[in-house]
């Protein structure tokens, strides 16, 4: 079956540009609305503890104005739990967070922090919030997520995107992980570091139902415009998915 592959647009780095100078421009909400009009399936925003890009006000505005889901990325902390519940978001993705990191360096270690994460997940689910967990493509981590009964996982694709020598190995690890997740009735998403060429390969993994892409799209939009960049990315995704389906059906 040629299942649709959804595309989520991460708008964090619109806020990064805004915050570099202060003020209100460029507005992440405006970027989110353009993405929505270009056919994005959701908007992702990471509210970091140090508020280096997305702010609390941004989250409130996005929840109020968007017609598509907001996927709130957050560290599994009590502060973020309270914000997620009070803002009435429908989706949360739990991610690791280090103050000194430039960007997210890897997946959340669910095995190591299972008790704490379980408590956060339970409280979110009690408020009818769908919970995803951002993890490395690792069967043991997925198994831990299965036990925690999360709605979905998001596989960290950074190693695949950055690794030039063992790209095939990283791809097969992602594919293996996606198949294992689907077998255990967990929806599988993927993201981090994806560019046009990387997406062509990841989109062929039929068990992945959603890709979340931010930095590359925001960067490329400087040259092409945001709407055109999103439309090009969606076209690549759809063509890659369709090509895979036709090859399997032949």
Write structural notes for this entry.
The protein is an alpha/beta fold and 250 residues long. The chain has one domain (6-245): Aldolase class I (TIM Barrel). It is built from eleven helices and eight strands. The chain has an eight-stranded parallel beta barrel, surrounded by seven helices. Helix 9 links the parallel strand 7 (187-191) and strand 8. Helix 9 runs parallel beside helix 11. The chain starts with 5 loop residues before the first strand and ends with a helix. The mean pLDDT is 92.
Sequence of secondary-structure elements: EHHEHEHEHEHEHHEHEHH
Task: Tell me the number of helical segments per DSSP (H or I, 4 or more residues long).
Answer: 11
Q: Which regions have little confidence, pLDDT < 50, spanning 5+ residues? A: none
Helix content: 40-55%
Name the CATH class. Alpha Beta
Structural class, by secondary structure, is: alpha/beta
CATH homologous superfamily caption: Aldolase class I
Relative strand content: 15-25%
Task: Give the strand order of the largest sheet, numbering strands 1, 2, ... along the chain.
Answer: 1-2-3-4-5-6-7-8
> What does the radius of gyration come to?
17 Å
Q: What is CATH's topology name? A: TIM Barrel
Shape: globular
SSE map:
Layout lengths: L5 E5 L1 H10 L6 H10 L4 E5 L9 H10 L4 E5 L3 H10 L3 E4 L19 H12 L4 E6 L3 H10 L3 E5 L1 H5 L4 H17 L3 E5 L4 H7 L5 E6 L1 H10 L1 H24 L1
Parallel strand pairs: 1-2, 1-8, 2-3, 3-4, 4-5, 5-6, 6-7, 7-8
Helix pairs in contact: 2-3, 6-8, 9-11, 10-11
């Amino acid at each position: 079956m040629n299942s649709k592959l959804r595309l989520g647009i991460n708008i964090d780095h619109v806020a990064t540009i805004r915050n570099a100078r202060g003020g209100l421009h460029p507005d992440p909400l405006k970027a989110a609305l353009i993405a929505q009009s270009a056919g994005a399936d959701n908007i992702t925003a990471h509210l970091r503890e140090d508020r280096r890009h997305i702010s609390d006000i941004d989250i409130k505005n996005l929840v109020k104005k968007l017609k598509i889901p907001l996927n709130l990325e957050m560290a599994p902390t009590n502060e973020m739990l309270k914000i997620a519940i009070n803002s009435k978001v429908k989706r949360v993705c739990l991610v690791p967070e280090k103050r000194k990191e430039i960007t997210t360096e890897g997946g959340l270690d669910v095995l190591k922090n299972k008790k704490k994460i379980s408590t956060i997940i339970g409280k979110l689910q009690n408020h009818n919030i769908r919970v995803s967990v951002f993890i490395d493509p690792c069967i043991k981590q997925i198994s831990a997520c299965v036990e925690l009964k999360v709605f979905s996982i998001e596989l960290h694709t950074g190693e695949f995107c950055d690794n030039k020598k063992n790209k095939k190995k990283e791809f097969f690890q992602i594919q293996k992980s996606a198949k294992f997740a689907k077998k255990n009735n967990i929806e599988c998403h993927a993201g981090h570091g994806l560019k046009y060429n990387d997406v062509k390969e990841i989109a062929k993994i039929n068990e992945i139902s959603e890709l979340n892409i931010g930095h590359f799209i925001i960067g490329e939009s400087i040259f092409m415009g945001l709407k055109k960049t999103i439309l090009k990315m969606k076209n690549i995704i759809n063509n890659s998915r369709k090509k895979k389906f036709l090859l399997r059906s032949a």
